[in-house]
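Morning, I've got a small favour to ask if you have a moment. I've dropped the whole record in just underneath, so have a look.
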Amino acid sequence: MTKPAGFHRSLAHMTGTMSGILAPRRQVSQRSKAFDLLLAGALTLFFGLFSLAQEGVAGVLGVGMLAPLVWRRTHPELVFFAVSSVAVLQWLSGANLMAGNVGLLVALYAISVYGEVKYSRIALGVGGLGVLMATARYYSSSDWRQQITMMVALGALVFGVWAIGERRRTRGLYVAQLEERAAQLERDRDREAKLAVSNERTRIAREIHDVVAHGLSIMIVQADGGLYAADASPEQAKKALATIGDTGRASLTEMRKMLGLLKQDVQPDLDPDQPRPQPGISSLPELIENVRQAGLTVDYQVTGTPRDLPALLGLTAYRIVQEGLTNTLKHAGPGARTCVELDFGREMLTVVVTDDGRGAGVAPSNDPGHGLVGMRQRASISGGTVNAGPKAGGGYEVIARLPYNLPAGGNQ
């Protein structure tokens, strides 16, 4: 006869449920297995032998409620089912309560600690039913007050054992959550450290670009000037060559220091002994003097009350001025004049670099470069802005507004 489809679904569901019960709930160490074996053996020897001496052949049931406790940690649901089944046989056979019945309490505790929550609730219900069955069988001839007293006492014992197991389960889950959270925080910290190192190396790469671009711009201008002055003014040509040499050596030294930082596996900010160039506002006069020696006329003005700036803000201002002067050398053309202005306002530093040359928009160039993008990125890190473009009437202008107070998350 063909079985209905519902029968097959029910059979499959029952098979899956039993498979889940029979499967080990957790990985148990060898030490825990040895402890479970010793505990079950000790309980079986002590209470099992006591049950045999007390009940004779019926005492075998007491042994049957103790021996399965070896697997109480790996198969708590199966152990509780087995022990409860033996207890039911004890009730049906009319055997008295015996020492081996302590196995019921141990199995109930095990399922409340190691079993699934739904099976733990079922086990509590089975324990409550067992209290009613035991009271009805073993205290049926007693006074009703004694029956109620025993029912309450046995019920409190069963519920107390289950509650202790639930509390241990909850505490274990809480500890496991704390451990997982700590592990997650450690993983997040490692990721943030790697990201910080990556960002630092990217920033150093931009520093190298600025150093090389600025140094090469000066060297190219000096080389062109020396070439034209070689015949008419040998002394001027020698001076240009000397400037080229000094600029090249300085740029090479600074670049080597930065490349040394890129070779480090640790975050450079965490090692104060690593050499790291950090120019700031105080380095601007030297920068402007080098540009003047390259043949560019530069006026330098400071208004407002100068103040000490955070390292990041000072470095940002320096690089913006450096990039502005580099662009002037590249694009402004011969005879251009440049003005660098610093205005220390109440809430922000304003950096202005202007020239009266032909402007970057008309200067011939095969490589537009990344100077303006780099300036804006630097300014945004410091919470500021950069505006750049041709001036009305000719020339080019770069205006950077950098607030003194860094935004949240800004690094110095």
The chain has a mean pLDDT of 75. DSSP finds eleven helices and five strands in the chain. Residues 144-232 form the longest helix (89 residues).
